[in-house]
Amino acid sequence: MDAIRVVLSILLPPVGVFLQVGIGLQFWLNILLTLCGYIPGIVHAVWIIAKR
After folding, report:
1. For 21-40, how does the pLDDT look when each residue is reduced to its tens digit (9 = 90+)?
2. Which of 1, 27, 2 has the alpha carbon at shortest distance from 14?
3. Contact indicator for 10, 47 with CB cutoff of 8 Å
4. Nearest-CA neighbor of 8 among 16, 26, 45?
5. For residue 20, what are the contacts with CB-CB under 8 A and spacing of at least 6?
6. Are the beta carbons of 39 and 7 closer than 8 angstroms?
7. What pLDDT shows up at residue 5?
């Protein structure tokens, strides 16, 4: 399942975070990072998935 989340995090970072933690602070932070730049959103999403 983590492999699917990582692939989704690369394609759509907020979706990967949503599948890992749901709608919460990390989800909204990831949306903000993705809007500021696609790469920061990917890095944050992969970090959240790898941390748990």
Report:
1. 999 999 999 999 999 999 99
2. 27
3. no
4. 16
5. 5, 48, 49, 52
6. no
7. 86
Measure the CA angle with vertex 43, ends 29 and 34; round to 5°.
Answer: 45
DSSP for 1-52, please give it.
Answer: -HHHHHHHHHH-HHHHHHHHH-SSHHHHHHHHHHHH-HHHHHHHHHHHHHH-
pTM for this one? 0.90
Span 13-18, mean pLDDT? 94
In whole angstroms, give the CA distance from residue 52 to residue 36. 25
Task: Tell me how far apart the 2 most distant CA atoms of the chain are, in Å.
Answer: 28
